[in-house]
Amino acid sequence: MRKIAFGYSTRCNIRCSHCVAAGETPYSSKMELTQAKDIIQEMGIAEVKGISFTAGEPFIYFEDLLELIDLCSEKNIYTRVVTNSSWAKTLEKAIEKMHLLKQCGLCQLRLSYSRWHQQHVPKQQVLYAAKACQEAGIDSFISFVTDFSELDDPFEQYLRDNNLKFFPEPVIYAGRAEDFSQQPLFTDYQDNCCQMNPYLAPDLTMYACCDAGSHFSTTNFFKLGSLNDWSVDQLLTKSETNMLYNCIRTMGITPIASYAGMKSKDIVTFRKCSLCKKLFNDPETLRALQKAAAGDLLQWHR
Ligand code: SF4
Ligand code: SF4
Fold it and tell me: Is 43 a pocket residue for ligand 2 (Cβ < 6 Å)?
C-alpha cells in the first residue's frame, strides 16, 4: 500500500534539541497551498492510500491543513497529522481544533512527546490533545521519543499515570541529535528491516525514507528525485523497484551489513539508522551493495 510522509512546511514553533528535521536546507521552507493540493490530487490518482502530515509543526498552517485533509478525505486517503501539541493550551481550545479536524475527516493524530519536546510544551498539553481526540472521535497515540535513559522515567510514568496510549521511539542520531553522546549499545542481532515510507519535502524533493534518510548527503542514497522533473507515480515506482531498497525492506540492514563484511560483534553495537548510514552513505560500500543487490545479496538468506 502506498503511504507517504508529506512535508508541507519545515517551520516549527519550538526548537527541540533532538530534532531530526533540523539540518534540511533551507530549514524553514513551505509549499504553496495550491501546489500541495495539486500534488494530493496526483497522489490520489497514483493510488496513495495514506498521507502523514509531518516535517515542522503542521498546526502552524492550521487553515491550510484543514483544506488539505478535506481533499484527502474526498480522495479516500487515510490521514495522520504529527504534532507537538503546542496549540492545546487548554482542553477547550484543543477540543475546538479537534472538532474542526474531525469535520474534515482526519483519521489519526500522532502526538510527539519527549523530555526535549516538553522543555517547550507543558506535558499537560499532550494530555489535553489526547483527551480532545477522544472527545471528537479521532484515533490518537503518543510517540514517546526516548534515549532509554533514567532521565525519561518520569516522562514515561506521566503517560502511564494518565492511561495514555504510547509507543517508545528511539532517538534518531541525525539532524540536531547528531552530536548527542550515545550510550553504548548491544543488541541481540535483530534483522532491522525497515518499511521505508517515502517523504516529500516542501521543495518537492522526494526521499525513499522518511526518517534519517534525507541526511545521507555523501551518496544521496535515499533521494528519489524532484516532482519538478518526475511524476508522483514515477518517483514511487522508483522507490518500489529499487533492488537494494527492497533488500532493506525484506532482509533487513543487519544481514546486509554481515554480507558486506562487518563483524557480528561490531554489528550489534550499532543502532539501526547508524548502521544504515555506515553502509549506504559510504560510496564504495554502496557501489558494491548496489551491484550485489541484483544477484548474490538475494541469496544471502537461511
Ligand atoms: S522535533 Fe518536531 S516539534 Fe521538535 S523542533 Fe523538530 S519539528 Fe519541531
Ligand atoms: S534504517 Fe535507514 S531506511 Fe530505515 S529509517 Fe533509518 S535511515 Fe531510514
Answer: no
